[in-house]
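sorry to bug you again but im stuck and you know this stuff better than me. below you get a single protein, a line of residues and a line of whole numbers that encode the local backbone shape. mainly i need to know what kind of three dimensional shape the backbone takes. anything you notice is useful, everything is just below:

***
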Amino acid sequence: MHLRNVVRSVVLAAASVTSLAGISSAASSATNWTVVVGGQTPDISVYANGFFPRELTIHTGDTVAFQFAGYHNVSFLSGASQPPFAIKDGDGYDGNPLVFFPAGANTYDGTGFHNSGVPPSDKPFSYSLTFIKPGRYDYACTIHPGMTGIINVVDGAVSETPQAALARGRAEQAATLAAGTKAYDGLNPQTTGSNVLVTLVGDRQDRYSVLRFTHDPLVIAAGTTVTWTVKDPFEVHTVTFASGGQLPQFITPQAQPGGPPKILLGALALTPTSTTTYDGTGWVNSGLLASPGAPGNSPSSFSLKFTKPGRYVYWCLVHDEAHQEGIIIVK
């Protein structure tokens, strides 16, 4: 994602002022378990929005290392509501520190807010938490709505070894990526007369998102209206035509005295334009699009009529680092 490079520097700058980062090595007396957070195909066309394994049972006093394989966080909310991704600040919006920055100690008894923060770099990143009280604990990635997992903590015996649990998680992850790849291979726009529907897909049960608009360039006739609709429960997207201009940053850090940076969300990326036709010139942007019912009340679709022959490249500003670009050829 385009925002990831920017947030790396934000998180690194904040590390010195977040003393309770919750990232530590497991105590030598504890049994260590591993949960893989996310995953992706080599070309990042498919993103795994899940924890693998989805559910894990461990002993009281054991430690779980959450090994990151994507852009996520691990949040134990202890029954509280999920914090919103963005918060309003004056005329604009900021990224919520409760989403981006670490919080909480490295032990968990079912109370309080504990958050890994987002990965600070492309280097291996792990967040460890020791569970000191029996219980059934739900947790989530608060970047991707509906991405949840369960840790069961028991005093008695468990039926699985850490090695077997990790193998099960890897198998779940492979199944997720295979399901997403199959969906991407079958990603075909629907044409009805002079209208074309492009669907951005994901699946909550199989825990994947396809970070592409179409599998191949979309070839249409002049006068065709293309509508993009989001049916992905996890991700938000934009449909953005920059007409050869530079793409704006989705997130910009702003230094603050004595604390972590403020995370500014780019107004240009967030603001939809009123344009309904496109001839290859000018700035055209959908603003954030999300599936119906997603937090934030974003629209789920955007339409544009193409009036002039040409080859037009467009982008999702949220996922441009994942190469989510589309091509439309108008004849």
Observations:
- The chain has two domains: 2-181, 183-330.
- Confidence is low (pLDDT under 50) at residues 1-28.
